[in-house]
Each structure stands twice: as C-alpha cells, then as structure tokens.
Design goal:
Length: about 60
C-alpha cells in the first residue's frame, strides 16, 4: 500500500469516526439536554466536512504521483 493510499484511508477512517462522535453526542443530548453535547455534535460535523474537503483536495493534488 502506498503512502498516498494509506493517507486517504486514514482520512476516510477519520471521517467515519467524526460521524460516530456526532451520532453519539446527539444521543447524549436527547437524554440530558446539555449544551456541551450540542456543541460536540456541531464540531464533529464540521470536522467531518473539513476532512472530506481535505481528502478531495489531497486526492486531486496527488493524482499524478
């Protein structure tokens, strides 16, 4: 496995992990209604979105390597 492929795999796993954190925080917010869980959800969704953009840009930049 090339370093490029490993990097893209790591970014994909990070996106999935951020999605799971967002889902977990939604569940906790529904139980306890604390602001910290809502903030965690928003941050996790933002991180997930930024990681997707980063992965796409990285793939486009390293396509010819």
């Amino acid at each position: 496995m090339s370093l490029r492929a490993f990097h893209l795999l790591f970014v994909a796993v990070s996106v999935i992990l951020a999605a799971f954190v967002a889902a977990w925080s939604v569940g906790e917010y529904q139980l306890e209604h604390e602001v910290r869980y809502a903030v965690t959800c928003v941050v996790a969704i933002a991180c997930s979105g930024l990681l997707v953009v980063y992965g796409a840009l990285f793939q486009r930049k390293t396509r010819n390597l």
